[in-house]
Automatic annotation (TrEMBL):
Gene3D superfamilies in UniProt: 3.40.50.2300
PTM annotation (4-aspartylphosphate): residues: 62
Domain of life according to the entry: Bacteria
Descriptive protein name: Two component transcriptional regulator, LuxR family
The Response regulatory domain, residue ranges: 11-129
GO molecular function: DNA binding
One Pfam family this sequence matches: Response_reg
Record CDD domains: LuxR_C_like, REC_NarL-like
Matches recorded under PROSITE patterns: HTH_LUXR_1, HTH_LUXR_2, RESPONSE_REGULATORY
Source organism per UniProt: Micromonospora mirobrigensis
Single GO BP term: phosphorelay signal transduction system
Keyword terms: DNA-binding, Phosphoprotein, Transcription, Transcription regulation
Domain HTH luxR-type per the UniProt entry, residue ranges: 159-224
InterPro entries per UniProt: CheY-like_superfamily, NreC/VraR/RcsB-like_REC, Sig_transdc_resp-reg_C-effctor, Sig_transdc_resp-reg_receiver, Tscrpt_reg_LuxR_C, WalR-like
Length: 230
């Protein structure tokens, strides 16, 4: 997805089957000058149609909903083939590995629990809106700890791109991203500036057809760039 223009607010679509929950999220988000809630949906089917019609920057998506669940809806939204399509941020009550990995496989750019703080939610919306993907330390550790167990890689379609498309430096950057390193940490390891790291990360994502750093972690483990225990 393309980051929203600096001169307009981040457009958010709220998707949750509970009206009170949606209302609470709206109150939290709309106090921020750089965030605008453009619509609400109570089920995944409605979310898919509203995402196409309203073209938000971020879809804040619940998991367990009637008609079409949030994971299936996420796959339909991110799989529409629109490079400027919205980022999907999963927000759920259920701290379950199957939901986490299914969400990442479906193309979600972030995964949060509803027991977080309003500040966590606001920052997460900003992070995924600028195309970075939400790699909170706890989420990164969860992904890596699962992938680092031999034979534990969650099932799902592999990305078709190859690391052969990357330069040696880009492969190095991807490996560091997969280990959960921040841009600042990567810059320190490689003795370059953070701006240079951001450029490398952007090129890696573009070459491999990945949406964000979350998918980059999955890709690196799927393709053996980072080995279990390495």
């Amino acid at each position: 997805m393309s980051a929203p223009a600096a001169d307009r607010p981040i457009r958010v679509l709220l998707v949750d089957d509970q009206h009170l929950v949606r209302s609470g999220f709206r109150v939290i988000l709309e106090v921020e000058e750089d965030i605008e809630v453009v619509g609400e949906a109570a089920d995944g089917e409605r979310a898919v149609s509203m995402a196409a019609a309203l073209r938000p920057d971020v879809v804040l998506m619940d998991v367990e909903m009637p008609v079409l669940d949030g994971l299936a809806a996420t796959g339909r939204i991110t799989g529409a083939g629109d490079p400027d399509g919205p980022a999907v941020l999963i927000l759920t009550t259920f701290d379950r590995d199957d939901y986490l990995f299914a969400a990442l496989r479906a193309g979600a750019s972030g995964f949060l629990l509803k027991n977080g703080t309003p500040e966590d939610l606001i920052e997460a919306v900003r992070v995924v809106a600028r195309g970075d993907g939400l790699i909170a330390p706890a989420l990164t550790r969860r992904v890596i700890s699962t992938f680092a167990r031999p034979g534990a890689l969650p099932t799902g379609p592999r990305h078709e791109a190859s690391t052969a498309e990357l330069t040696p430096r880009e492969r190095e950057v991807l490996a560091l991203v997969a280990r959960g390193s921040s841009n600042a940490e990567i810059a320190a390891v490689l003795h370059v500036g953070e701006a240079t790291v951001k450029t490398h990360v952007s090129r890696v994502l573009a070459k491999l057809g990945l949406r964000d750093r979350v998918q980059a972690v999955i890709f690196a483990y799927e393709h053996g760039l980072v080995r279990p225990g390495g």
